[in-house]
Amino acid sequence: MKLLRALLFLAFLLPAAAAPPPALTEYQGRTIAQTMHWTGAEWLMRQNREQEENAALMLQELRIQPGWTICDLGCGNGYHALTMAKLTGEKGAILAVDIQPQMLDMLAARAQSRNIPNIKTILGEFHDPKLPPASCDLVLLVDVYHEFSHPEHQIKAIHAALKPTGRVALVEFRGEDSAVPIKPEHKMTKAQIRKEWLPLGFAIDREYDGLPWQHLILLKKNPPPSPSSPVPHPNP
Fold first, then answer.
1. Which CATH number characterizes residue 88's domain?
2. Most confident of 5-9, 19-23, 32-36, 168-172
3. Considering its fold, how many domains does the chain have in total?
4. DSSP letters spanning 132-195
5. Are 86 and 116 in contact (CB under 8 A)?
6. In a 3-state reduction of DSSP, which class is residue 100?
C-alpha cells in the first residue's frame, strides 16, 4: 500500500506528457492526402514503377556522394533506401524513417537478405521524424510530403536535421499536369511547394524537370541575413 501511495505521489509530481498537436486535413489551401496503409506496400514495388517514375534517373540527379548520411523520410518498404545504401558505401548511412513499424520490418528484412548493413530504421511520429540534429547531408521525400498531417512541424524538424550544406530532395507528382493519372490530393504544383517550404527557412537550390510524372525540387537552408548586413530603410 505504501508503494502504491508513493507511485501515485510521484505521478502527481511529474509533468504530464505533452499531447501531440492536432492533425490537419488542409494546409495552405491544399487538401492533405491520407497516408498509404502498410498493407498496400506491394504497390510500391510494382513492375511499371520504373517506367512511371524513372527512379534511376532521379537518384542520378541527387548526386549522392560516398560517405553521406541520407534520410529516406517515408521510406516505406525500401524502394529507394536499398539502392541509396549502396551509393553511400560502407562509410555512409541511410536513416530510414516511417510511421508504420510494419513498413520498417519489411525494409529491415529486405536489407538483411541483401546483406546491406548501413540502413538504420527509425519509427517516426506524425509530427516528428525523430532525426538527430544536423545529421543529414540529404533528406529525400518521394511522394510522401503531401500526406503529412503536420507539415509545418515536419518541415521545421527536417530543417533542424540538415547539416549546414545539406539538401532536401522533394519529389512530388506534378499537380500542373492533368495527364499525370494520379488523384489531385496526391499531386503538388511547384507554386504550392514554394508556398509551403520557403517561408519556413528554405530556398530553392535547383529543379529537375526530366522525370516522367514528377517534380524534383532540391531545397537548401536559407540562412538569415548577416547581423552586419545593412537594414533597408523603410522609406528610401
1. 3.40.50.150
2. 168-172
3. 1
4. PTT-EEEEEEES-GGG-SSHHHHHHHHHHHEEEEEEEEEEEEETT-TTS-S-GGGEE-HHHHHH
5. yes
6. coil
> Which range, of 32-36, 149-153, 205-209, 215-219, averages the lowest pLDDT?
32-36
**Across residues 94-105, what is the average pLDDT?**
97
Question: Domain of 137?
Answer: 54-221
CA–CA separation, 19 and 213 (whole Å)? 38
Would you say residue 7 lies in a domain?
Answer: no
The pLDDT tens digits of the residues spanning 153-178 come to 999 999 999 999 999 999 999 999 99
Residues 123, 65: contact at Cβ < 8 Å? no
Q: What is the pTM of this model?
A: 0.85
Q: Domain for residue 231, yes or no?
A: no
Position 43 in a domain: no
- Which residues fall within 8 angstroms of residue 171, CB to CB, at 6 or more apart? 58, 140, 141, 142, 143, 211, 214, 215, 216
The CA distances from residue 14 to 1, 8, 19, 164, in Å, are 20, 10, 15, 37
Residue 40: the pLDDT is 64
- Residue 234, in any domain of the structure: no
- In 3D space, the residue among 120, 198, 115 whose CA is nearest the CA of residue 159 turns out to be 198
Structure confidence at residue 12 as a pLDDT band (50, 70, 90): very low
State the first-to-last Cα distance of the chain, in angstroms, to the nearest integer.
75
